[in-house]
Structure formats: C-alpha cells, structure tokens
Amino acid sequence: MSLQRTAAIVLPLIIAFLFSPAAHAADPKPIPDKLIVLTFDDANASDYHTVALILKQHGFNATFYVTSGWVGSEKRLTWDDVRKLHELGFEIGNHSVTHPNFLDRSEDQFRAEVTGFDQACIQHGILKATSFGYPGSHFDRRMVRVLNELGYTTARRGSDPEAQWSDDGGIGIAYEPGLDDPFLVPGAFTRGSGFADSQGLLDAINMANNGKISVLIYHGVPDLFPHCSTSVERFKADMQMLKDQGCTVISMRDLSSYVDLTKRPRDIYAPIINRLGGFAVNPETNAKRNPSFSWTFASRKTNHSQVAYQILVASSKQKLERDEGDLWDTGKVNSVESKNIAYRGKRLEKNNDYWWKVRLWNQPDQKELDRVSKWIAAELISTMRKSLPGPYSQPVKLELN
Ligand SMILES: [Zn+2]
To answer: Which residues are within 5 Å of ligand 1 (an ion), measured at CB?
Structure first.
C-alpha cells in the first residue's frame, strides 16, 4: 500500500477520533455561568422559517427535536427544511416517529420508534441523532437503557417530578452535570401560554451557575397549539435577553465539549429522588461547650414537612464530606423537632474546630402523587410513596466559645 493511500485511510480516522464526542469527554472545558442549551420540540415549520434566522443572527446553536412521522404535514417542517437546519449546523434530535406516551408501550415499540426515526434521517441525508427528547416527558429505565444501547449520548425530559411541569410551560430545574444522568437531562424553563412574561426565563438564566446548565424548551414560534405557543415578538425578546445577559447558547450535542457524558450516577433516579426529599436551610449552632443545633425545613414541594433528621458532627471537614460523624452521628431520628437539638456526642475541646451538617426526611405528598401518578413511571411513583431523605446541608464550622 502506498504512503499516500495509507494516509488517505488513516488521516480521516485520526480526524474522526479527534472530533468524536469521546475525545472531547476526556478533557471537557470548564462550564461557564449562564451556559444555556436551547431546544425546540415537535417539528414546527417555524423551526426553519422563523427560529433558525434569529438564532443565526445571535450566533446561537440549538437542538430541534423532530417527530419524523409529522414531517410534511400542515404547519410542520418538510424533510427539505430538516436537512437545511442540519446543514446550517443545528442539531436534529430524535422526538420519535409518532409521539406516543411510551410508558404505555412495550420496549420493542420504543426501540422501533427510535430506530424508525434514525432510518428516516439516513434516507434524507441527515446525520444520525445522538440526543432524544422524551415525548410528553414520559421516561423510565427501559427507555434509558435502549437509548444507551442504540448509541445515543443524551436525552431531555421536562422537570417532573421535582418541579411541576405542564403543557402550558413552567419553571423547572437546572441540569447538574456529574450528578444528573445524561439520559435524564431536565428542562429549566418551558415557554408556554402560562408563562408569557420574561421572569421565568430570567430565573432559568440565573439557575445556570456553579457548574449547572439551564436547558430551555420551546415549541412552535408560533405553535399549532396555543398552550405551548410563543409569539415571534416574545421569541425575539427572549433571544435578545440571552444575548444581553451574556449567555453561551449551545445545542445538546455541544454538551460533550463541557461534560463527560460517559459519567453516570450509580442509579439513574438517585439525583431525582435526592431532590424530592426535604432539605435544611439556615443551619445554626448555639456554640457553647455543649452546643445545640437548629435549622429550617425547606422543600420544592409545598405540602411537604419534616418527619426525621440526621445530624453528623466531625473532627474535620474532610471526615464530614465523607459523611463520617466521628464525634456524633444521630442516625435517622424520627422527629419534627428542628430547634435547639442538644449535642450528645463525644466530649468537645474549647480550642478545636469542629464541623457539623444535617439532612432531613420529608413525608410523602399525597396531593403531588395524585397529580403525577398518571404519567410518571410506576417505579418512580413507588419510590415517591416513601419518606425520602434530602441532601445534607453544607458543612458548618462549630467554634466553641
Ligand atoms: Zn413533543
């Protein structure tokens, strides 16, 4: 084989390796504050005819989650439009063939809809998708497993069960890379008739800090359906706000530059369950030789209250960060008390520094369960029926006086 021929074969391989997501993942860039992922669902004609131009004017990237079975119908994209979006550098994401509630379908049916979309893209000269948008935000373990098997790297949901997500929009939660599973990336804000002012978007922008990323969900500009529609004026104002706020606006695919997408939680639901628990705010110590501890219960859910707590006191911050309470570990104490809990651990010396933190368990919220049980996976609902622990509070220094 000639040197030229070898080079002709090997060079593209090296280039393909250098630009593959895996190569990025090895050394992700630091995540800037106000990093925003922009997504558009349901293959509306406006994706190409209105949105694309506005995004290009601002230098923004985006993911268009296309439902392939809807392409070519009235007020939807044509395959020509989809290909042009792809050629403009935007990402085409998989939003299934027929947009069903997959909780009611078999694993084989889910697989068939994912690969059916992939085949339609290949037929029309469009790159195979690597991101999936759950239709109606219905997800479960089977779907996550199948997407992983089929070479997908990310998937986007709404924000339930942690934050109420509805058809007419809403404020969700920021994506926490390294914590959230890349196949369960939550939405931070959905534009819809219920959220037509600028506040929700501003909240979502401000949530994107300290390594967190906000994913925005839009539908048509305007949409076929009024509840999830965004007017052209509103959309232009939104994009201007992202610009004025100094946001970096990317597609789901671009996440691979910032996030090691191969890093996954030990359980895909663990981060979700962790957010469903109650948590402590304003942890305070009465710093005497025999201190006492207080906090306030907080929750994202209005009907929650504290039913148990666990306090850890440690001789170093490092021990506490490993959840080691070498001086005092109360274990789970079933109690609604949150004021002046007296210390009952090992003897404390006046000149030493100590550290403490607390976590809280909430009661299951029946109203919330009733609301979500029709469209959240049964396996997640059964967990939500239990009293759940929230995350530990930040370690607080205990200086005795
Ligand atoms: Zn949809």
So the answer is: 41-42, 135
